[in-house]
Amino acid sequence: MSLHYLNTAELHSALTEGRLSSRQLTTACLNRIEMLNPSLNAFISVNADQALLQADRVDEKRRRGERVGVLGGLPLALKDNICQKLVPATCGSRMLQNFRPPYNAHVTERIEAEDGVIVGRLNMDEFAMGSSTETSFAGPSLNPWNRQRTAGGSSGGAAVAVASGMVPLALGSDTGGSIRQPASFCGVVGMKPTYGLVSRYGLIAYASSLDQIGPFSRDAFGAGLLLQAIGGHDSRDSTSIPVSAPSIEEIMAGVPGKLRVGIVDEHFGEGLQPEVGDCVRQAIAELEAAGATVSKVELPHSKFSIAAYYLIACSEASSNLARYDGIHYGHRADQFSDMTDLYCQSRGEAFGPEVKRRIMLGTYALSAGYYDAYYLKALKVRRRIREDFDRAFQSVDIIAGPVAPTPAFPLGEKLDDPLTMYLCDIYTISANLAGIPGISVPCGFTSDHLPVGLQFLAPELQDSRLLQAAKLFQQRTKWHEQHPELS
Ligand code: GLN
């Protein structure tokens, strides 16, 4: 039996009922990684020994009849910006090539406590800045549906690993779409939870008021299971909300009765590739056939979301990345004349061009004289965007639309044109600005056989509603059961 594309519920029950051991499944994943990773570049590092040890520990617990956590011995992988004690966390950057965090992230602790098996660490855009994994110092991840195309980003490695059957589950981070967009490009489920539902303790910061860790899976069940494991309050993150994550039973039991679906005209306007629009419209018609009602809602300020996001994210990044100076943290240059020169040489050598661009943009936006005109103005727009969502969610339960304007684009196409790259984020970014949850679910293919994603957005803390809508859609369609042919 090939284990690579079994859905998460089947894998989970095979483990729970003892028909499959965690060691068998972990070994199968490690073999598949060994076979496919050289050509897809999803993993930056693999920790086979540690993973097998953990798998044996879970199997042993089960043999002894002890309580096994919700992840039940499922293998998974972490984006390379999530800390694991003493395991290199490069963040896709030369700056952190030799960094071994002295502690575990909250989500790492939770995964261990819930008996997940971490097999390795996933490729990403440098410091999570990008939409194609091409800014990674480790080179781009390749899209398993077409290796000339990008995997999306910044959590591209996570999307590729799940889409190619290397692991059933993965964790990424989403600051402006970095889970949902690569999930859409690679044909898997990717979810950004409500801001504050998953602790950021031990997530290497990009833009702290927007960053959120979330799950990748091939199905709604897997995403819900992983969210249950990692979600909930943590006092070490001051923005963590004092609630617990929805349980997988609660998610799977709830069938959205008469789902009220909102659609936004601007999501289907200029810039949207027609084939993507067609898939998304058909998907919404499928929801209607399942009993949902569809009506229009307005998000009048979302047209300012890219401008507001890139000001806020870069401003926060310029502050967060100040610690990488070759002394506190990060690469230290060999040659320097004095202290200032040490900072300049170290940062100049180890940051890539996109990171430098953002540090400069953010430093400028925060500087005296420009702070009010740029940063403060962006914060005001952010507030308006949130108010638009609050108003829209008075009449609908979820908002449905495209994840990205195009399917996976060719490698190299947008690398020299940052503005076009930033435009990829047009439909995903406003959820981060508003702090609300969003999910990408596979909903079809283009004529070139590239996957297309459907995005659902829900009000703050209605994460289970999103997963239920995804489950409903997956009960009626088979898009998530299609897999790339790989040899
Ligand atoms: N593409 C966006 C950016 O480059 C999103 C990044 C993210 O969500 N980490 O900022």
Please state the CA-atom Rg, rounded to the nearest Å. Answer: 21 Å
Distance between the termini: 17 Å
Unreliably modeled segments: none
> Would you identify the CATH H-level superfamily of the domain at 3-257 and 463-481?
Amidase signature (AS) domain
CATH C-level label of the domain at 3-257 and 463-481: Alpha Beta
Strand content: 5-15%
Mean pLDDT value:
97
Helix content: 25-40%
Describe this structure in words.
It is a single chain. With 487 residues, this protein is of the alpha/beta class. The protein has a domain at 3-257 and 463-481: Amidase signature (AS) enzymes, CATH 3.90.1300. Helices cover 39% and strands 12% of the residues. The chain is built from 16 helices and eleven strands. The chain has helices spanning 8-16, 22-40, 48-64, 106-113, 156-163, 180-186, 220-230, 248-253, 274-289, 305-320, 339-350, 353-366, 371-392, 418-423, 429-434, 463-476; strands spanning 43-46, 75-79, 117-122, 169-173, 189-192, 213-217, 260-264, 293-297, 398-402, 438-445, 451-457. An eleven-stranded mixed sheet has the order 1-3-2-4-6-5-10-11-9-7-8, with helices on both faces. It is globular and about 65 Å long. The two termini are 17 Å apart. The mean pLDDT is 97. The structure holds glutamine. Glutamine binds next to loops.
Distinctive features:
39% helix, globular, 487 residues, 16 helices, Amidase signature (AS) enzymes, binds glutamine, alpha/beta, 11-stranded mixed beta sheet, single chain
